[in-house]
Amino acid sequence: MLTNPHPASPRWALAEQVTDAVRRRFSADVLAVGVHGAVAHGDDTEDSDLDLVVVTDGPSGGPRPATRRVNGSIVDLDVISAREYLAHARTLSTTWPLAADRYLTTKTTYDPGDWYPTLRDTHLARLAEAGTGEFTVLAVQAWYQACSAVGRARQLAGWYEMDAALVALSDARVSAAIVEGLLSRTYFRDDADAVRRTGIAGLGLPELGDRLAAQADTLARRGRPVDGTVADLFG
């Protein structure tokens, strides 16, 4: 067990309790246990979830993934094999701006073999290999998702389905923030952090449309225009 970096956090204490239970019951299968999210960043509150990842030696070892409320906190216990987790760390996709934080800022509650530093180094090495063009291609794909989300929000608003339109607008904001993250190679802690740091939080549909237009201009300047022909669909 590592020294508690957040001695005042009851959620960190809970993470240690869960880790102890995992180690007692699955000692032969578990390589490491880590915490990500607000608890890892050290700014969790009584409303924060506890996000734990158990890394196993093989694909069938360790506990089953589970979610429960324990001592007033939602505990999300994820379980993944070391091989699969490293494969995720080497994969870049449109979800990268929201996925990278767990590779880079996880705090460990059990890691005798320094496995989590290996995960971090693996991801950083993949980022070092990726050029601007690779992130631009991903940004184009994310832009299409964002454009579709804005369209859904606009359609629902036109039908005066205001509650549904607000949900769609929230999705559209997050999608547009992901595009920004890919264009700038910036990762975020979560959805809320993404829209806040990109200045997209609070934007209405007209302003969000303007932001997408600006993103499309940036992509075009990088040689990846979002508009094409029917033939482009096949080549």
From TrEMBL:
Polymerase nucleotidyl transferase domain span: 17-61
One Pfam family per UniProt: NTP_transf_2
SUPFAM superfamilies: Nucleotidyltransferase (SSF81301)
Classification via InterPro entries: NT_sf, Polymerase_NTP_transf_dom
Highest taxon of the lineage: Bacteria
Coiled-coil intervals: none
One annotated GO molecular function: nucleotidyltransferase activity
Protein name per the record: Polymerase nucleotidyl transferase domain-containing protein
UniProt source species: Rugosimonospora africana
